[in-house]
Amino acid sequence: MNSTLSKYSLKHTKNRKVFLNGMKDGIPIGLGYLAVAFSLGIAAKKAGLTAIQGLITSLLCNASAGEYVGFTLIAAHAVYLEMAFGTLIANARYMLMSCAISQRTEPGLSIWHRMGLSFCITDELFGITIAREGYINPNYTYGAMFVATNGWAIGTALGIIAGNILPLRLVSAFSVALYGMFLAIIIPPARKNRIIALLILVCFILSYLCSVLPIISNLSEGTRTIILTVIIATIASILFPKNDDEEE
Question: Nearest Cα to 144, choosing from 126, 168, 118?
């Protein structure tokens, strides 16, 4: 009995520490979200949403492109089916991220934790989660999401309330935190592995080219991300396979 309680206590202490680490790493993401969500709040205001409605929407939908599409369609008085398809296309890249996360979860992880991780997936939260070594501890992602999502929701509500009151320079200054966070994610693994560094460089170049080339640039950002992810990941897995022994 005492042994069981001791194991439970140790596991609880470990999960609590991991959760706090996630909160710490989620601070720069939350600050960036707070700033970025201001413009989203303005779009929500134009669509006729109140601050409370915008707050709840951002708590339940952690996707900038998906929310912006939703707010735009609300303003255009679109039907529910159009909104469903629009947000599905805008957020389709998260299905790829979910597949990547599922390959890093511990065998036997409960369906509730798997559903929780799927709800927590955003570009930034996926980045810091997948960058951790070993199996993914859901508590880390929960901690990061707790900070980041609140920043996102509060920023949306403040954007609806404040509108364009705050100077654009101040909002842009907050947004720099997101770029710093992305650098913190990609630089450490790139320094350890030249192949990763090369692939990151290729991703930057191809992403820019797809944003300016005819026809391809007309596709949504989410669609371009999906296409590039599938192509680059497929080619990289063929050219630079990683066996299970190396993974262990």
Answer: 126
**Runs of H (alpha helix) within 47-122:** 51-60, 64-75, 80-90, 93-102, 111-120
The candidate with the shortest Cα–Cα distance to 230, out of 201, 206, 197, is 206
- The tokens 């810091």 sit on which residue? 128
pLDDT single digits (tens) 193-246: 888 889 889 988 998 998 898 888 888 766 777 788 788 888 888 888 766 554
pTM of the model: 0.68
**Alpha helices per DSSP H over 163-220:** 168-192, 194-212
76 burial via Cβ count (<10 Å: 0-12, 13-18, 19+): exposed
Phi, psi (5° rounding) for residue 107? -55, 135
